[in-house]
Specification:
The complex is a heterodimer. Chain A is mostly helical. Chain B folds into 2 domains: 52 residues, no CATH class; 209 residues, MetI-like (MetI-like fold). In chain B, helix 1 packs across helix 13. The chains are: A mainly alpha, B mainly alpha. Chain A: One of its GO terms (cellular component) is plasma membrane.
């Protein structure tokens, strides 16, 4: 077998590149998170402080607020996206004509850059000249009010990512065998029964995949929040990603920023492993 | 009407309403991009106005927005090319060739999909500063490869696994060897998938914001940075920024619709075939 090593040669470059670009920076981050190191003060050298950054992290009220905001954001955004996405996917599924065109238009929001999505909504919700204000005759500064900013950001997320949920759930519905529906119609089952007994159980894997990807990606939300509210007003829309960014690139507190980025990494991996274990048990992922 | 018909009517209504919700923000910005300031900042929204090309003239003239578009193109092409050249052979190895610890490697690559950009950008900033690569295209291409390479590997692996094994075995009998079977049989047969994968990589790179924000320099800033800089300023130029947004969206719509069939697979890392 002269080709025994071929697989390794074909795989090696990719693994080395991932090692250099992802694993090395993460290890570097983990290492430096044990130092007190601020870039604004050149005279002050890096100082080994052990776990001090992590003790600080768990006692930092901003981290608490940011995590709470992030959790609210994830729960509401993903929850609304899942319910709305299911309804629209089912409606698409019932359609007899125009499904292709509807599909093509529905996917548009999710391929637009989040920064541009932010711009669209910044103008749509402008208190003075925005379409929403003009059509309703109100002048609400959605992104400027402490108790409205987070709901407004959630609406932006729902706009951008419900299409993703629709496409996946719809694909799941299309893969259900026709004979199951025929059997149900012979039994005289109505549409609600068909959805409850056949469709929903059949698309459980797709629902779980949606939950995995949306949770993972919403948890790390950055772009739209950065553009629309910068975490404000006050700390009302501060997220953990934004706080990490600010610690590193506004305060230049690199040691602490690295500890925060390790915190994000570890929490994301814990959440994802939980989902992935569920998915593997149901043999959705290998 | 029968009960069944009401379901169909209701479905069209639901999809119609959802399409309205999807399209209104996009159409609003597209209209703003061809409106004069007086029409944008009028007290009531109107559809009757004289279209103007001034915003585009300004954005492509004095604001030279095309620099951002060119930078985005360079970075997207660079990162896509690197990810495809390195990722496709790796995907084939994981799908077809005897590799020790194959499942373990596949999972390691999936793990890299979970790593949030914000966790990587802090150490990358310091490392690239040390290497004096901050502000270069190289830094951006490298950063964008961190999400594009895993996507290429997982997506192409799913395409290779769908090929019937007999075809490659036949090629090997012809004396092509396994690498020959990869080059001459597997690769051409998966070329639609490969094209879609490449398109998705271009798309993800084109839209990426955080790495570009931290790692790019004055000369290498990409389109999202350009658009964000329009929003950040105190006196927001609605017409100009809308024109910029439209210019940034057009390539995305073309690419996205071209890869429509494989979009779901790409976004779910090959988990949903779509």
């Amino acid at each position: 077998m002269r080709n025994k090593g071929l697989g390794h040669w074909m795989l090696a470059p990719a693994l080395l590149l991932l090692l250099a670009l992802i694993i090395v920076p993460l290890l570097y981050s983990a290492g430096l998170s044990a130092y007190s190191w601020n870039l604004t003060d050149i005279d002050l050298p890096k100082q080994f402080t052990g776990l001090a950054n992590y003790t600080k992290l768990f006692g930092d009220p901003t981290v608490g607020t940011a995590v709470l905001n992030t959790v609210i954001y994830v729960v509401f955004a993903v929850g609304i996206e899942l319910v709305l996405g299911f309804v629209v996917a089912a409606a698409l599924f019932e359609m007899t004509k125009g499904r292709k065109l509807a599909n093509a238009l529905i996917l548009l929001p999710m391929i637009i850059a989040p920064v541009i999505t932010a711009l669209l909504w910044r103008y749509l919700l402008d208190p003075q000249f925005g379409l929403v204000a003009q059509l309703t005759g109100t002048s609400i500064g959605w992104f400027g009010e402490a108790n409205l900013a987070l709901p407004a950001l959630i609406a932006v997320d729902v706009w951008q990512w419900t299409p993703f949920v629709i496409l996946i759930l719809h694909a799941g519905m299309l893969s259900i065998g026709q004979e199951q529906f025929e059997a149900a119609s012979i039994d005289g089952a109505g549409r609600p029964t068909v959805y409850r007994r056949i469709v929903i159980p059949a698309i459980v894997p797709q629902i779980m995949i949606v939950l995995l990807f949306r949770t993972m990606d919403t948890y790390r939300i950055f772009d739209t929040v950065f553009v629309l509210t910068k975490g404000g007003p006050g700390l009302s829309t501060e997220t953990i990603g934004l706080y990490t960014y600010r610690t590193g690139f506004s305060y230049f507190d690199m040691g602490y920023a690295m500890a925060l980025s390790i915190f994000i990494l570890v929490t994301v991996v814990i959440i994802s492993s939980f989902y992935i274990r569920l998915l593997r048990r149901r043999e959705v992922l290998r | 009407m029968r009960r069944r018909d009401w379901w169909v009517v209701g479905s069209y209504a639901v999809v119609g309403l959802f399409l309205l919700w999807v399209l209104v923000p996009i159409v609003t910005v597209a209209l703003n991009s061809v409106k004069s300031p007086q029409d944008i900042f009028s007290s009531s929204p109107t559809l009757s106005f004289t279209p103007t090309g001034d915003n585009y003239g300004k954005v492509l003239g004095e604001l030279s927005f095309q620099t951002f578009l060119v930078n985005s193109t360079i970075v997207a092409l660079g990162s896509t090319l690197l990810s495809v050249v390195v990722g496709v052979p790796a995907a084939y190895a994981l799908a077809r060739l005897p590799v020790r610890g194959r499942e373990w490697w596949a999972w390691l690559i999936l793990f890299t999909r979970m790593v949030p950009a914000v966790a990587l950008v802090v150490p990358m900033f310091v490392i690239f500063q040390r290497l004096q690569l901050l502000g270069t295209y190289t830094a951006l291409v490298a950063a964008h490869t961190t999400f594009n390479l895993p996507i290429v590997i997982w997506m192409m692996r799913s395409f290779f696994e769908e090929l019937p094994r007999d075809l490659e075995e036949a090629a090997q009998v012809d004396g092509s060897g396994r690498f020959g079977a990869f080059l001459r049989v597997a690769l051409p047969l998966t070329s639609p998938g490969l094209a879609a994968t490449g398109v998705l990589c271009l798309l993800f790179s084109w839209n990426e914001f955080l790495f570009a924000l931290v790692l790019s320099g004055r000369e290498t800033q990409t389109t999202p940075i350009g658009v964000a800089s329009f929003i950040g300023t105190v006196s927001v130029d609605w017409g100009g920024s809308s024109a910029a947004a439209v210019l940034a969206m057009i390539p995305v719509f073309v690419l996205g619709l071209a890869a429509q069939r494989f979009l779901v697979r790409g976004l779910t890392f090959g988990a949903v075939k779509g």
